[in-house]
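Our consortium's second objective concerns turning raw sequence data into structural hypotheses that experimental partners can test. To show how far this objective has progressed, the report includes one record in full. It was chosen at random from the queue rather than selected for favorable results. The single chain below, 152 residues long, was entered without modification.
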Amino acid sequence: MSDLAQNKKARFDYEILDKYEAGLVLRGHEVKAVRAGQVSLKGSFISVRTKNGKSELYLVGAQISPYKSAGPLPEYNQTRERKLLLKKGEINQLLGKKQTEGLTLIPLKIYTNHSFLKLEFAVARGKKKYDKREAIKRREVDRNLRSLTKRR
């Protein structure tokens, strides 16, 4: 299992409550581009769409650059919505959690599981500004303590 892309800002901006794993519906050249590391999850999120009474989850805003060796790809949209593959029970469980006030679904990382590409995402609650300040302060204190212990 190797990480191909991470959403580093997610853990700073959100309080992670639950993690889930889903498959991604990608085109062939997109799979090769992701495996080559040409993907960014910055600013992406997961939205819920309902078609004919069935709910589906989509990854929105993730950028997958065109694969270099694929040749010209006219009309390729790098930030198109990509469907997530989940069981119906998991989708219903997520919908119940999402309807709770203040919760959202955010992608954390894309990684390989054997030969499959998987997306790890989380049910999260947005942090307030003072929570972020506390995290920064804690990080600085830890950094100072480590540097002091190294000097001795």
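The partners drew two points from this record. The chain has a mean pLDDT of 85. The chain has one domain: 3-127. Both points have been shared with the crystallography group to help prioritize constructs.
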